[in-house]
# Entry
Amino acid sequence: MNKCPEHIVHYMHEYLDGDISGEHEQELKSHLASCPSCQQHMHELSKVAAFVQSASHISAPNGFVEGVTARLPKETSKVGMKRWFHSHPLLTAAALFMILMSASLFSSYNDDQHFSFTKQPNLVVEGEKVIVPAGEIVKGDLVVKNGDLQIDGEVDGNVTVINGQYMASTANVTGEIEEINQVFDWLWYKIKAGAKDVTSLVDGKEDK
# Structure
């Protein structure tokens, strides 16, 4: 993927953030169709994006933005600095994120162990196990956190099981099936999200 155009990676981020243009999306999909390396990278980003959907209630601690601003290096060249942040948003966000939020997020991840799942009318719940009954079709993505998922019917979308077990015998899933049990996958998504915040912060400073 190192030989691929850098803007393809930016298009991946735009797609996952939900603000990609039609032209960029068409170019991204065309490139992914012929590049296994970028397909794998997009697959990994999509996996952690689905993981963190169930942890969206976690917010940055008080003073986070002020802390980020205070730790930004002094600008020697406004144009050069702005270009650097846009070229390395993940690296910048990763460093700031690990300094300011890693301990808090690890604690939040360990404390948040409640069972939850995507609400669908045709699901059956037994204890901490979600069941798609035989003959039923679930329309849309299905995420189960801190519980197990058993599919005897069909799911028209992606399936993600977080801190649980996926069980299926005759399942028919049209999208991707992911099992996520690593806290570092979750942290990676938060780093990616932080990259967008840092870039916006730098743009705001440059415009003043």
